Amino acid sequence: MRLLLIIIGLVALAMVGLWMEGIGILKDGTMRRLLLLVGGAITALVGLCGLALVMMMFWFGREEQPAYVWQVVTRSAAFLPDGRLAIANDKQTVIVSFPGYQTLRELPAGGYVASRPDGSVLAVAMRGAVKLFDPNSGALIGQLDCWPPGEHIYEMHLSFSPDGRILAVAESHHSRGPEVQFWDVSSQSQIGTIRFDDPAISVIQALAFSPTGHLVVSTHREGVWLVEVAQQAVIRNIQSWPSSYIAVSPDGSRLSLSEFALVRTFDTRTWQVVHEQRFAQARPMADTWMSRLFSMPVAISPDGNWLATPNREAPNDTFSLFESGPPRQTIALRRLADGRRVRVLSGSPRRLNQLLFSPDSRWLVDVGLSEIRVWRVEE
Q1: Could you tell me if 333 and 308 are in contact, meaning their C-beta atoms sit under 8 angstroms apart?
Q2: What are the residues facing 140 on neighbouring strands?
Q3: Which residues make Cβ contacts (< 8 Å) with residue 170, sequence separation at least 6?
Q4: How many of the other CB atoms lie within 10 Å of CB of 251?
């Protein structure tokens, strides 16, 4: 960036020099006035361009760079309660120390991961099945065959109940439909199913247990719903348009939902929106895949103080003049209480994929498709 500004400055000086020399040589008054006018306009234009570049450099310089960047192909990631990080690709899951990133254990299964709250089980899901591993020994504890295995990989959604007894499972594939299965982790048996009997609902897009464990928040094409686990019944429609990411505060008082260009945070006692962030003309997305592609991840820190959201829309360009490689979708670190943005962080290329806070709330992790970026969370 600095080199670009230097080059522009040298070009501007050269043009001014040639302009002045031309004025000195010319004898005809009309030509001199014409050259003076044209040269002045060109010099002003170059000056304005330089000023704009300086301002944009200042703006981009506000984006904080990560403390760590790891080049790793990733499909999903999850923290264990002791601070270890499980990183899964399509073939395997690697458990690493954090933030030191030393490989501690390799598991022979990849896909979408979730940790039991007590850290005794790591669930790894792909193609309709969930494998349960002991993250300490790496032993395979069991397997939940939720649906017949599919040929292709579709996103699977996992959420453990706070007591770790139940695992909720869904898969974003039309053959599975809008179905959430509930499994007893100890007996590895299915204990219930809820299916949204609405022809307009195609697949589940996200799900999460409430901190009390008696409710599950589920999102799909037609909205966001609250499910009572014991009775396996829908008890509330939170909103009537889709959301692809869910974050629940540790005390259950706040629920953050995101979709295309919009993040909303609700007070779960009144179900009123306490704050929202709009990035463009928000609108429901008709197609599930497009909604997922253009949606924006959200995360709430375990201490309940911070909300991580995108800072702007995912860029459509493939080239950036101000940074190497494709442009990045930046991250906003906000206060959960009022949504006020405190910091702007440089995010993943093209678009964000997954945001995670460490269990001690000291670190924010941006899990991209080809790299993982880590920031310290501090004032």
Answers
A1: yes
A2: 133
A3: 156, 157, 176, 179, 180, 181, 203, 204, 207, 218
A4: 10
Q: Which two tokens stand for residue 211?
A: 């901190």
Distances (CA, A) of 132 to 75, 82, 144: 18, 18, 8
What digits encode the pLDDT tens for the residues 120-176? 999 999 999 999 999 999 999 999 999 998 778 889 999 999 999 999 999 988 778
Separation of alpha carbons 339 and 333, rounded Å: 9
Q: At what angle do helices 2-25 and 29-61 cross, to 10 degrees?
A: 170
Residue pair 202/211 in contact by the 8 Å Cβ criterion? no
List the Cα angle 247/253/258 in 5-degree steps: 30
Q: Which amino acid is at 318?
A: T
pTM comes to 0.80
Exposed (0-12), middle (13-18) or buried (19+): which is 43, by Cβ within 10 Å?
Answer: middle
d(CA 249, CA 174): 30
